[in-house]
Fold each of these.
Amino acid sequence: MSDLPAQPDGAPTVHKLEFHGRGAEYFRIWIVNVALSVITLGVYSAWAKVRTQRYFYGNTQLAGNSFEYHANPLRILLGRVIALALFLLYSLSVVIAPISFGIWILILAAALPWLANSSLRFTARNSSWRNVRFNFDATYFEAFIAYAVWSAAALAFFPLVPFTRRVHDYFYINHHRFGGRNFKTEFTASRVYGIYLLGFILIVGMLVVGLLAAFGLMVLITKLHAMASVSLPLGPNDFTFIAFGVFGLGSAFVTNFVTTMVTNVAISNATLEGGFRLQSKASALRVAWIVTTNVLLTLLTLGLFYPFARVRLARYRMAKYAVIASGDLEAFTSEALEGQSAIGEEIAGFFDFGFGL
Amino acid sequence: MSDILEGRYFYPGAARAVPARASVPEKRTLHIADESGQALAQVQRRDVTVTARLARLTRRFDLADGARFETDDNDGADALLWQLGKLRRGRFTDGLEKAWPVVALALVVTVAAGVFFVAQVIPRMAEQIAQRIAPEVAHPMAEQTLMALDRAALYPTTLGAADQARATALFERTAAHAKGGIGGYRLVFRNGGRIGPNAFGLPDGTIVMTDQLWKAVKNPAEIEGVFAHEMSHVDHAHQLQEVIEAALVPAALAIFTGDVSQVGQMSAILPGLILSSSYSRGFEQQADDDGAATLRRMGEKPSHMADLLERLDAQVCGKKACGRSWIGDHPATALRAARLRQEDKGAIPDVVQDCLKGTFSLRCLGWK
């Protein structure tokens, strides 16, 4: 399985990622996960999460070997119990003394960098390839600068958004380690600005097309009514409904278009110490199309398409990642693992801060 | 009892594997040999950790010395574990995931739980939250909404002082019989422009009436019915409830699926859809019922409001009544009017009858 022809030095080998998951297979895992989580009032959800992660990691292969996810469900469960307890404490204290709301916000803001680090570290340390574990090593201060300072700056001054995006990508990639070696990415901010500009043009274009289409539809309906006294069974609320739907899908399309292009740049400029380059060549249009149709189909099937959607996206997305090796893939040793609790990861997961690249 | 399991063996710390076979030659002992039969490892049962079974994923036997054995033969691995006397982790769950009847049952459980959550839990939570936070946010929210409407669609009123005084008198009379009492609500006049005849209640008790609506009224009880209806929206903080419901659904989805990133894609689209769909429209019925009750307390007949509804419907949609829509927004005017006429005789206990008649919405599954 892992027997690859040895490459002479200087001739880089491209190792593509592959995803072997199947929609129907994951559907069954997912539906059993959800049903058991419901029956056990959420207790099983920790095991469900581990099974899901293991399924996606285990079906992702690089150079003949799968990635592995090792998290202990009990630790995830503990994290969730603590997060829930804190949430109840928060709700209770806010009902009793509304002033405490401000204190909670301060606590949350102070804890946010720690939560981000802890969550990224938990995921990284529980991920491995060929027995070599990943790690994440940012300090509280670095996370504070990236997530609190820069995010606040982007909120306050909109043109800083692309720059902040680069700050986040640097933070995410440059603090990851694999077997004790550092990942490093570097690219100019102007590339991110160019991509966001393209996204902006796309939004404007879609708005114009959308308005013209809406206008055309109105005219058509009026004409139909006047000429043949046919009236479509569409009320004013239905138009709002359709408009919201189209707008939502449109924004999902543009968001994913932009995100994919930035990820391509960030990953394709990343190296791993020891002579490895990373590559991401996903077509932004294709990813945006897959995600948009996934959202639409998931809504139309009241959620039942969701597992197929995840597999569909992973299959395309993973196949477009590659590792270009000029050194020996097998020369890695695992970094010593320190015990790390799942608490940070789960508090973040429960309150949905939506990290990830 | 010594089955042979084909797989590959990794020496401690090595990245490269050699083909290998595992067997259980004697009780509680795992034996691993290479293709020629040369022994690679022999370990006690307690020194082996095996990953849980999951779909077609490779099974991994970690040995205490850092070496490991991997196989793609999951059935073989379970058979070996049975011989070894070890727990076959993940076997039961994997069996559930492979059995179609179980999958079908899981589907039923999930759908039932989802419907219960959407039809019962979320509306109740939204109501609780809305009533708790209503006073703090009601005023700014109402001001924002009215400002937005003034900018987009409404014009200053053209009603004379006499008309305004008459409307205000009827408004005060209705307020006296509604939950908030006199002073609990405030009447505001606007020219509706393209919106036409309409009235809406804002969370802080402000009720906007368009000039066009006032002109369509033939009997004072008709407009009193409309006022009572809007006052009910205000009392129940319906507008706030809608917004909270729209925010709760994606949150519930994230907890259900245990996945935030994909749900994030949907949180851009779901709230808008929920706000404009029939999901929150059960509020109309509640407001109609409350409005009818207020009218009865005033000694008026709820059927007057039905008259007004039908007149407006004819005015907006032409000679034919507006048909039901594909997606389903307000309950069709005809059904609302029929229900209001029934209210003349006394309160209708619940929505079941209407659900049976065809105004089926998710709220029919609840008891609102």
Note: Chain A touches chain B through 73 residues (CB under 8 Å).
Amino acid sequence: MLFQQIINGLTLGIIYALVAVGYSLVFGILRLTNFSHGSVYAFGAHISMVLIGYSFGMLPAIIVSVLITGLLGILINKVGLEPLRKKKSKGISSLITTIGISYIIQNLLMIIFGSETKFFPKLFDYGNVTLGSAIIGVRQFIIFGIALVLLGLLTYVVNGTKIGLAMRAIEQNSKASNLMGIKVNSVISFTFFLGSASAGIAGTLISGYYQMVYPTMGVMVGLKAFAAAVLGGIGVLHGSIVGGLVIGLSETLAATYLGGSYADAVAFIILIIVLLFRPSGLFGKQDITKV
Amino acid sequence: MPKNNKAFGQVSLFVNKYRKILLVAALVVTLVLPFLVKSQYIIRIIVMIGVYAVLGLSLNLVTGYTGQVSLGHAAFFAIGAYASAILSTRYGMGFFGSAPIGALIAGFCGLLLGLPTLRLSGSYLSITTMGFCEVVRMIFLNWDSMTNGPMGIQKIPKPVFFGTTLTLGNKGLYYLMLAMVIVTTYCISAIVNSKTGRALKAIRDDELAAGMMGVPTTRMKVFAFTASAFFSGFAGAFYAHMINYIDPNSFTFDTSILILSIVILGGMGTLTGPFLGSALLVSFPEALRFMREYRFVVYGLILVIMMRYKPQGVLGGQKRTPYALPKGVVRPETAKAKE
């Protein structure tokens, strides 16, 4: 029982981690909480549902939908946020803009697809395995595996490639990186692409797991993934992964032992407690105020 | 853009010149308004605008004047509403007893949340308040014995004033709302124009410098937060007694965002801004009802477009009146002119 719940929690947690990485990447570079991220996640799930419906193969459908979701991220950045950066607006303007964008995306989804819960085909249905007393779906392992590989890939992109180097440079000082010849705006767009694409994958995987899709699915997941990102130290990639796993695990365990209705609050209670003792999160770097 | 600013400047000059007359006119209009408008539906929207104006004013104290972004003000709204509703349905208290207690409880929660979290800065504060809002909602959702869980609290009595039940029909609720708005505006403006208010603005503009000048920054922030929670709680109590029914879903993250949008759209750090913001954002979904499902898309578009072209809000950043100095202090340039 406990073992099974732990596996369920880890599966959920790795999905949170995939979404949290998107928050973390954008926050790291722009110091911006991207509130449209949850709706991007819902968008990804819906696009996957439509494309899988066209039956030109499961995998190509998912890849195309992930690419489209990534492009949506670029669009958000180009249309909504880049003009604000050019005007050197205050941070809060960008924050409100992302909230506005999330309203637009979520309600357009509602208009186009209807607000009811829709069926999503089961992904990777290869039966169950029995480990001791626990019955675990093979798809849980596959979801976990895919997410882990993707997270590894993302970590490699950020830490091991040239564009990752550019991202980290902008994180430290965007003006100086611009002077060094880094195309700041393209790198930011690329960051949005990465974040949104991973949110799209997360949306697709979780929809395949629960077999349902609805326009407001991103709201709660968005908030929790954000909590996960902050918990691990926002802007730190491995922090988001640990944060996501912790939130997913604690939520599943709380649902089992305290009752389902407490599950949603646990993430935030943990977040508040951690922030009180370590304001920069578990792995976060301490910010130094410069005068 | 400059032309636009000039027009705004002229308007604000005009307003300053005839300030007293305009104030009296506004007062008269608000007093006779319920007799001019026959539709109860419109009166109801106006009362809701008042409620959200109070919420906007209270959040403005924290966000507009102190520069701390709270994403969880719906929590205090909810605490005030629930506390007052429980006191009146279970313990038979009248609105005039339960509402202040509800507001005090909300203020106390604000103090409890503020003490540890206001040491955090920037985004972390926003996140903690957001988390707090979710936790409060979960508590109301699960504390069945007290809050009736997801069913919500029903049959909350209307306020009774010296034997008369105040309803929308007999315009009593409208005047009660008016009284609440006036008292809140007075209190907030008193805070903002006091020494404390100057300290708050100093924290907003540069927290480090304010601290260096001897402003007890954390204490000031906690004060602003507590006061803000108190007024939000009062608005919540009023809301509960007006609608007669509350459930946890009336106080979601969306409500917090709506309050924040009111402050930002109207103009941060202005006293009139929240009124305009509330009037626009509360009446908008109602006015756009014919567009049905598209109205929230339009709502999102408005936020995006506003931030792009006028991020300081409709009334923000247009202040032409010189900064009010304490008595006996003379500006150097006026002193020179006198010589």
Note: The radius of gyration of chain A is 19 Å.
